[in-house]
Amino acid sequence: MLETLQPYILTFIPIFVAVDAIGNIPLFVSLVEGVNKKQRHKIIIDSVATATIMAVSFMFIGKWVFNLIGITIADFQIAGGALLFVIALRLLLPGGSKAAFASQHDKDIGVFPLGTPLITGPAVLTTTIMMLDSFGIMPTFVSLVINMAIVWVTLVKADTIMKIMGASGTWAFSKIMYILLAAISVMMIRRGITAILLK
Length: 199
Prior knowledge:
Elements: H1 2-19, H2 25-31, H3 37-69, H4 73-92, H5 110-119, H6 122-135, H7 137-156, H8 158-197
């Protein structure tokens, strides 16, 4: 039983870290301030749908694009790991925040900046391809869908979660996620270099 679930658990965790559902809550709350309940619900649906479609599409066509332009998985592991590390480092340093993406406040905020790049950004796309290569389509797809369902729940219950955790609690949780993201990026780079050296 545990062996069957292991690939799903091992794909779920990195994607969960990359998506950072809890860390997106303060930005979501600030973006939908003054928006009525019906519009807010539409924004949530638009954001989760956009994020899911982008991630799933990239999961299926990403490797095809790599083959087309001659990029190997090892190349992507090194480049993707380096990118993830830079993203994690910038978010960990004082003053670093996803708020830089959240400058737009109009009817399309569900698509941009919420759907992308806040929910599905470079970190999620990179992690998804890495998990696909390591564990296969089914565990990656299931983990991705479960994570998007978690995002939907956290956005629907955003106000309640903010009251329970507080601004400082969500901030602390995000910082822990960014540290894990940095560690995952180092692992990707290590695997990429190992793959090239063993050729």
